[in-house]
Amino acid sequence: MVIVQPPKKIHLLINLKFNTNLTDENFKMSKYKIYVSDYNFADEVRKEQNIQSMNNVKICDTTLRDGEQTAGVIFSSDEKLEIAKYLAELGVEQIEAGIPVVSQNDVDAIKLIVKEKEERNLKVSIMGWSRANKKDIDKVVETGCDAIAISLATSNIHLEHKLHRTKEEILNMAAEAVSYAHSHGLYISFNAEDGSRTDYDLLIEYIKTCKNAGGKRLRLCDTVSALNPTSAKFLVKKIKQTVDIPIEIHAHNDYGLAVANSLAAIEAGAEYVSTTVNGIGERSGNASLEQIIMSLICLYKTDSKYKTENLKKISEYVENASNIKVSQMLPVVGENAFRHESGIHVDGLLKFPFTYQTYSPQMVGQKMKLIIGKMSGKSAIKGKLDEYKIKASETDMDEILKQVKIAAERRKSALLDEEFIEIVHNVMKKEAFILVEVLPKERPKVYDEIGKISDIEVYEVAGNVDIILKTTQKSAESIIEKINEIEGVTKTATYAVIKRI
User: Fold this and answer.
1) Do 353 and 360 contact (CB within 8 A), yes or no?
2) pTM score over 0.85
3) pLDDT digits over 339-362, tens only?
4) How far is the C-alpha of 389 from the C-alpha of 109, rounded, in Å?
């Protein structure tokens, strides 16, 4: 006789498997089917977007620079190298690897990243960050980076209250720094810190000054998230109409608009976008790498040039390295991004997964997970029973669902596996086995007394256990009470059958 014990304690999550090898002519580079709104691609909408820019925009990921500027975050050299490897494998075009002047450890870490790039012939640019002075630039040169971001504040607020400099002094500082970096053969992104609050005439003069000195692109910094999507689009478009220069949008997230502002800037023609993994960064963070990538692919129908299946993996690594817990509600990589409990939703998802999803979770390295709790419906109950190969009548499923809701409300959370199975047993009266140990000299009497108990099958066995009784889960408790009253019984134990193997 085979006795099947209950499973060990695990959370009640069903991993639903769907066919992920789907193709869609509209998304030639993606092996996944995507269901978003057709309104995104209406002619009236598309003509408001710079389609070429949307398709060709490049990512400059600054997790290792702006991400490490998150309050309390320090990456080790090994962690920096590992994150850089993840980013290169993902396919980002440029990695802002850090601020060399901060410490020798930072210099050494960036050197490791540059070495990794050269040894593996990685198709990614490695950038170092500096202020507008020769000392900082020399440190970037020392690391072997091929690119540099030279940062200088341009708004009147910063000029007056932080730098205590005139407009002319700032322009001279910028020209000298950019020219010096250019003489070392570096690709130069010149940053307009607080550019979104900079007087337009000064901003244009700053751009022209840096470009004439050898600067290759403007990093337009929305340093304190002072823009909204409409103004972000307006400003980028206006700059491009005035000066022929590639633009990188560097958006912060103080109002939760970093991704929206970045996408609006790309619509206007920005050729580069700053991102960080999990959106970490100063204060409320930066534009999230994973949200930018998935928005471009799904909402703008751009070719999928990034290895999106790695997004969850790199998110988890940065989460651990930064010690910043990712919100369960974070889009794309959060634990709740593909978890479902609501009965209406689950019913639709089980019939067709895209009723409540626009892309397959496997596309970003996730799985769809079904939670059993207060909001569950009969479809979720059936799905879980199917997992355990338990067949239940409609009446039983109705009662199981009723008991699930009561239990979930009582504990104010979804149920654990064993809690759900216990409810199933109580409702369905599943089999249970009672193991009985008896004093040898009392066996005849015990056998006789047990024979008087109804609703059981009795088996005599060899070994430490003397008797096995087969009954139902519902009857097991009362039968154990009766057996324990029999003189000569030394021990009883019960095991419930969950599923047959």
Assistant:
1) yes
2) no
3) 876 767 777 777 788 988 999 999
4) 53
> What is d(CA 258, CA 249) in angstroms, rounded to the nearest whole number?
10
Yes or no: say if 382 and 397 are a contact pair by the CB < 8 Å rule: yes
Instruction: Please give the Cα distance from 17 to 499 (Å, whole number).
Output: 21
Strands 457-460 and 187-193: unpaired
427 has a pLDDT exceeding 90: no
pLDDT for the residue numbered 30:
55
Write out pLDDT tens, residues 44-82: 999 999 988 899 999 999 999 999 999 999 999 999 999
Environment class of 189 (CB within 10 Å of its CB; exposed 0-12, middle 13-18, buried 19+): buried
Could you write out the DSSP letters of every residue in 98-125? Answer: E-GGG-HHHHHHHHHHHHHHHHHT-S-E
> Which of 115, 14, 126 minimizes the C-alpha distance to 62?
126
Pair 84, 110: CB distance under 8 Å: no
Distance CA 332, CA 288 (A): 10
Lowest mean pLDDT among 121-135, 177-191, 440-454: 440-454
CB contact at 8 A, 392 and 425: no
Q: In sequence order, what DSSP letters do the residues of 284-353 get, joined into one string? A: T-B-BHHHHHHIIIIIS-----S-GGGHHHHHHHHHHHHT-PPPTT-TTTSGGGGEE--HHHHHHHHH-G
Query: What is d(CA 140, CA 181) in angstroms, rounded to the nearest whole number?
Result: 9
* Distance from C-alpha of 25 to C-alpha of 383, rounded to nearest angstrom: 32
Q: Does 98 score more than 90 pLDDT?
A: yes
Domains and CATH numbers, the chain: 50-322 (3.20.20.70), 336-427 (4.10.430.20), 429-496 (3.30.70.920)
